[in-house]
Every structure is written in structure tokens, then in C-alpha cells.
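Sequence, please.
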């Protein structure tokens, strides 16, 4: 098996979002099940699919942010389409605001009909408090962060710890 690690292209965002949906599927991922509870999911689509438009939009917004790096792991031997088998989204650390200003994309709106906003707000508050406690008042501004199938939250990582 040959895995190629390279920068993602914008055309690959739907595949990255699908992979995120598989890795963080509500049947196996407790956090996703809390934010997108079963009783709010439409009955006419498979469980887990209701969050896909939001996942694609969130990845699209991040992709267009200059301090974000999207990396994909591609299995070049699986088929001739070079299937994406892993991804990492890195928020690059920023220095002083003069040399590289932070560009924080607005989070896309969560789908109101399938989201438990109370749980989402609690989760966001917990993460923000943890970031400050762990890294100080600048939060994650000086930290390489990864969002990948191997991590639910943004975690302190080195640039070489891309998971597939």
C-alpha cells in the first residue's frame, strides 16, 4: 500500500467532509451524537447524513483561511481515483499581530433542525476554558492544532503527527 501525503485541493472538500462524517459518525462518536441527537434527525435519510452540508461548509470556510493548512493522505494503490483515507486540518500558529495577523473564519451556522444547540454551546465553553487553562490568555494562537479523524478536538500536536 502506498500512501501519499500532500496538500488538499478545494475539489476534495466533499470527500474530506464525508470522511469526517464516517470518522465522527453519531453511532460511534458520543460528542457527535449529543450535538446531532437521533430524535432530531430526519427519518428519510441515513443516520449521520444530516450534518454533511454543515461539515462541507465548515471545511470550505477553513480551506479559504490563510492560516489553515489542509493535508490529505491518499492511498494510490486502492484504485485509480486515489482515494482519500485520512486528512488533517492544521491551524498554523501565529506570531505577533504585525507579522502574521490571525484570520479566524466565521463558523458556519449549524443546521437548526438537527442540532442540540444547548449541548453545542456547553461543549464550546468547555473547550474554550480548556484552551485558556492549557495555553494561557492567547488560547490556541501559538499552537499547531490538528483536526483529523484521530482527534475529536483541536489538540496540541507537532507538524509531523498526521494520522491516517
Amino acid at each position: 500500500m502506498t500512501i501519499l501525503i500532500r496538500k488538499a485541493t478545494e475539489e476534495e472538500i466533499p470527500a474530506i467532509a464525508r470522511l469526517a462524517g464516517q470518522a465522527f459518525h453519531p453511532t460511534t462518536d458520543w460528542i457527535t451524537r449529543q450535538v446531532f441527537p437521533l430524535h432530531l434527525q430526519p427519518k428519510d435519510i441515513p443516520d449521520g447524513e444530516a450534518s454533511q452540508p454543515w461539515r462541507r461548509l465548515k471545511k470550505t470556510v477553513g480551506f479559504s483561511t490563510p492560516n489553515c493548512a489542509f493535508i490529505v493522505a491518499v492511498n494510490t494503490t486502492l484504485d485509480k481515483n486515489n482515494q482519500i483515507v485520512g486528512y488533517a486540518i492544521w491551524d498554523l500558529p501565529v506570531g505577533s499581530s504585525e507579522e502574521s495577523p490571525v484570520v479566524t473564519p466565521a463558523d458556519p451556522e449549524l443546521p437548526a433542525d438537527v442540532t442540540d444547540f444547548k449541548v453545542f454551546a456547553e461543549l464550546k465553553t468547555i473547550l474554550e476554558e480548556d484552551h485558556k487553562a492549557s495555553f494561557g490568555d492567547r488560547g490556541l494562537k501559538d499552537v499547531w492544532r490538528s483536526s483529523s479523524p484521530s482527534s475529536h478536538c483541536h489538540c496540541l500536536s507537532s507538524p509531523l503527527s498526521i494520522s491516517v
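The two ends are 13 Å apart (CA to CA).
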